[in-house]
Amino acid sequence: MSRIVKINKELKIGDGGFITIAGPCSIENLDHMIETVEFLSKQGIKLIRGGIFKPRTDPDSFQGIGEEGFKIFKQIKADYAVSIISEIMDPRDVEEAMDYIDIIQIGARNMQNYSLLKEIGRTNKPVMLKRGMSATINEWINAARYIEKEGNPNIILCERGIRTFETYTRNILDLMSIPIIKNETDYPIIIDPSHGTGRRELIIPASKAAKILDADGIMVEVHPNPEKALSDGEQSLDFKEFQELNKEINKLD
């Protein structure tokens, strides 16, 4: 039985339900975020993802809008009554983020950034810990323990694929991590099929498999026009595709 991580009075992860987290890889501007959140709210989505600090392999790639994103989060939360998950990369940003972000995401590249893990562990804010690109399951669990040892038990794990020799997909989505984490820990676990596959046509089947395997939810990237996205357009769903995902997931109920 997973521990239950409370996001707010109504929203919980790990209580036996299946949550869909959705939103853009990167927030590009206020209008872009309003368009996306307005659509997702109508689809019943209560937890919105959106990156404002983007660690990219290529230093010339879009790095996110930075602290300007906090103002956008504030307006979006007020206008649409949604909760926000976003990545924090630097321990110095944790204190400011507390006022705007409901779940702090630790990205794959920072899974073993122990200074960051400890800083977030000193808060009571829910945290989503993504698996590192080359991390074993035991290394991932131990990273979560760094957070918990500082006093914060509100931890959600996120499987986002690992790096292997295969190049057809961006990563290899390790779906067997779901029953392993369920057996070895009480952390809730969600799946990121967008990063896990890197291909939008694989997001629906990967999401359905995650639900069947008893994951606690999925986190997918959604953009009004993926071909023009500033980051990760090839693995983002457009609005019509997201509606199809919702339809397919609901069939499994």
Please render the helix and strand layout as text:
Blueprint: E1 5-6, E2 12-13, E3 19-23, H1 30-42, E4 47-49, H2 68-80, E5 83-87, H3 94-97, E6 103-106, H4 114-121, E7 127-130, H5 137-149, E8 155-159, H6 177-184, E9 189-191, H7 193-197, H8 203-212, E10 217-221, H9 239-251
Parallel strand pairs: 3-10, 4-5, 5-6, 6-7, 7-8, 8-9, 9-10
Antiparallel strand pairs: 1-2
Helix pairs in contact: 4-5, 8-9
Judging from the principal axes of the Cα atoms, what is the shape?
A: globular
Portion in beta strands: 15-25%
Helix content: 25-40%
Compute the average pLDDT.
93
End-to-end gap:
20 Å
Largest sheet: 8 strands, parallel
**Continuous helix count:** 9
Strand order of the largest sheet: 3-10-9-8-7-6-5-4
Which structural class should the secondary elements be placed in? alpha/beta
Order of helices and strands: EEEHEHEHEHEHEHEHHEH
Give the total of beta strands.
10
Low-pLDDT stretches are: none
**Radius of gyration over all CA atoms, rounded:** 16 Å
Can you walk me through this structure?
The protein has 253 residues and is α/β, with parallel strands linked by helices. The chain has 9 helices and 10 strands. It has helices spanning 30-42, 68-80, 94-97, 114-121, 137-149, 177-184, 193-197, 203-212, 239-251; strands spanning 5-6, 12-13, 19-23, 47-49, 83-87, 103-106, 127-130, 155-159, 189-191, 217-221. It has an 8-stranded parallel β-sheet. The protein has a two-stranded antiparallel ribbon with strand order 1-2. Helix 4 crosses helix 5 (137-149) and helix 8 (203-212) runs parallel beside helix 9 (239-251). The chain is globular, with a radius of gyration of 16 Å. The mean pLDDT is 93.
